[in-house]
Specification:
Elements: H1 2-10, H2 16-44, H3 48-70
Organism: uncultured bacterium contig00076
Protein name: Major facilitator superfamily MFS_1
InterPro entries: MFS_trans_sf
Length: about 80
């Protein structure tokens, strides 16, 4: 994974295990509720988990678009 390689290259070797543990803990904390929430939505309708995925995808695309339109890199325009 690219992020693991970047951490291995740029983090102090004495701190690497702690940084990786914090990273994995954060990923698990953020992603764990989605299984429960998708199951809850699936009990109501089998289509709702897919609607949730589409909403999250659209939100991610919108956030990325807004970020890159507000933070344009003008270094190539010389």
């Amino acid at each position: 994974m690219l992020s693991e390689a970047l951490i291995a290259l740029h983090v102090n070797p004495n701190e690497r295990a702690r940084i990786m543990a914090i990273r994995y803990m954060f990923i698990m904390l953020v992603t764990a509720p989605f299984g429960w929430f998708s199951g809850f939505l699936s009990d109501m309708s089998r289509n709702l988990p897919f609607v949730l995925n589409l909403f999250l995808l659209a939100a991610g695309i919108a956030i990325t678009f807004i970020y890159y339109t507000r933070h344009k890199d003008h270094s190539a325009e010389q």
